[in-house]
Design brief:
Length: 256
């Protein structure tokens, strides 16, 4: 990786943030503590898994010294991201930082993936702290809406950013698990949720030309590193218990 410095632009999802005086002393993602439970982390960030679902590292765990170390992350929490301006300019797709088709959810992960592809790193810096009033946006949305955009955007991001060999491994696994999750939703009587996930998958078929154009742009103008060299930095394999609890609701999971 050619540069560990990340950014001089700050992007905040304004759900009620309380800034500390040392906020600008370091770069990348800050330590996000829950404003309503200041002894607990919101999350440190996330790693990619070979299932296509993210491993949300440090989710709602106790704020202990064992987590006070700088680490690389695949993606950061969208509540607060700090980047160098010149890095963001290098990862824009046809002049756009955010994909306008995403609307909400997974947009920060799509950006972080392109930062890695451009040869930079995403770092967790625990020496600087932000208190986050979690759920300010999602609490106003129903779960069906959230899951539709989450599944839709996640699939499109992988179709855009993964190289072909990685896509052949991760995408089929992700679609298989997504189909299982959809069938489980129908079985539990959550009909709207099941159809929302189906719509998310169909959307990606309908917009395949748009995704292909974006993929070509990323490979031609942004990608500087291969997935083979990238994956050791961004992929982790949590235990099966994580995925079982993720399917039921991440709030049931405790960081291991």
């Amino acid at each position: 990786m050619k540069n560990t410095e990340l950014v001089s632009i700050i992007i905040v999802n304004w759900n009620g943030l309380r800034w500390l005086p040392d906020c600008f002393n370091s770069l990348a993602v800050r330590k996000l503590l829950l404003m309503d439970q200041p002894d607990r982390l919101d999350a440190i960030g996330a790693f990619l898994t070979r299932t296509g679902f993210l491993y949300h590292y440090g989710f709602h765990t106790k704020n202990t010294k064992s987590l006070d170390k700088e680490i690389e992350l695949y993606t950061v929490k969208g509540a607060c991201m700090i980047f160098r301006r010149n890095v963001l300019r290098k990862i824009c797709v046809e002049g756009k930082l955010f994909d306008p088709l995403y609307f909400a959810y997974f947009e920060e992960t799509d950006i972080c993936h392109r930062i890695w592809l451009a040869g930079y790193r995403i770092m967790y810096i625990p020496s600087s702290v932000i208190y986050h009033k979690a759920g300010g946006t999602s609490s106003a949305m129903n779960n069906t809406f959230i899951q539709y955009h989450s599944f839709k955007n996640r699939i499109q991001s992988y179709l855009t950013n993964l190289d072909f060999s990685s896509l052949l491994i991760i995408l089929p696994t992700h679609i298989l698990l997504t189909t299982g999750y959809t069938l489980a939703a129908f079985f539990r009587g959550k009909i709207k949720l099941g159809f929302a996930i189906i719509r998310a998958m169909v959307w990606n078929i309908w917009y395949w030309r748009v995704t292909l154009d974006k993929r070509r742009f990323v490979n031609k103008y942004i990608r500087k590193v291969s997935d083979l060299s990238l994956f050791p930095h961004i992929i982790r394999s949590p235990g099966y218990s994580y995925f079982l609890k993720l399917a039921k609701g991440l709030s049931l999971y405790q960081h291991e």
